[in-house]
Design a protein that fits this description.
Strand content: 15-25%
Number of strands: 2
Shape: extended
Mean pLDDT: 77
CATH class of one domain: Mainly Beta
Radius of gyration: 17 Å
Order of helices and strands: HEEHH
Largest sheet: 2 strands, antiparallel
Distance between the termini: 29 Å
């Protein structure tokens, strides 16, 4: 587990190990998702970087479109 401290200017410094492993760069943007008291932070990716990411995924067990229509989706505020 890695830790970071929120500064008085509300900045977080990511641990060097994580920066190197994820190949993070200065100026890179991140997406924050909150669920209850938990914050998940992920690097923002371009569509080109995501190409081929799901290759070989098994689509069995996914909901069909009719079933999905019964569920409500919340759009996160920007």
């Amino acid at each position: 587990m890695y830790m970071a401290t929120l500064t008085s200017k509300f900045l977080l410094i990511s641990p060097k190990t994580i920066r190197e492993r994820l190949r993070l760069k200065a100026g890179q943007q991140f997406v924050f998702v909150t669920k209850g008291e938990t914050i998940t932070m992920a690097p923002k990716r371009d569509a080109g970087e995501l190409r081929g990411m799901l290759r070989g995924a098994n689509p069995e067990g996914y909901r069909d479109r009719r079933e999905q229509a019964f569920f409500e989706f919340t759009i996160l505020e920007r």
